[in-house]
Amino acid sequence: MRSIQHTTQIYNNLGYWFLIFVLLAFVGFYKTYFSVLLDPHPSVIHLHFSCMALWMGLIIVQPLLIKYKKFSVHRALGKLSYLVFPLVLITSAMMIRYSYFAYKSGLEAKVQNGLESYSGAEILHLSAYEMGLAIFYILWLAIFFILAIYHKKDRIPHSRYILAAALTFMGPTVDRIFIFWFETVLLWGFIPFEYISYTLINVTLIYFLFLDKGYPKGQKALGISLAIYVIGQVLYATVRETNLWENMVTTFVNL
Question: Does the pLDDT value for residue 243 go beyond 60?
Fold first, then answer.
């Protein structure tokens, strides 16, 4: 019983732990967003950031409302998420499209200036390849949100899928810290930076999987979440080099 009470207390305090993502977001986006906030930016950047900030706020507040037994407010904000989350998906899609063409234009400019010698086909391939990380994270977020809503009447799996959804903040924040603060895309010269975030996500889910001893529903939800992440990570490492991936991304951004 003590173990179950301890586990319940940890989940009720997740909102406090999720505040770490606020710090990570500030550090990760400081150089490219906060420090140049007053500079001209495409409106899609501000729109996407605002929607993600709202979503992060909901992720932080909702567990705390349960902790302090504000159930009616929790349910009201849960209904608000039905509006916020589609906006997150829409602005994420817009951001991916913007990033694709910005990256593609950058490669074309390098070719025109004689800095690179990419062919047109190589530029299309590299541009699609570069969008992989953002696409996988938004797909993970969508899957876990749908699973959480499907189990909204069952607190245990619902909270576990929300945890899995919250962990998607790990990539966009931690990855950017490595890129813009440590100015590296390879750790120790051979490990791509994104696999550090993947490792942190997997280890966190494994920790909670063991923590959920005594909660079969919780372990099942966390096991499914871990499997979804690992399958996605394997696909991320393999499919981005394929023509199928290039065709899918190119079709999407040109819709």
Answer: yes
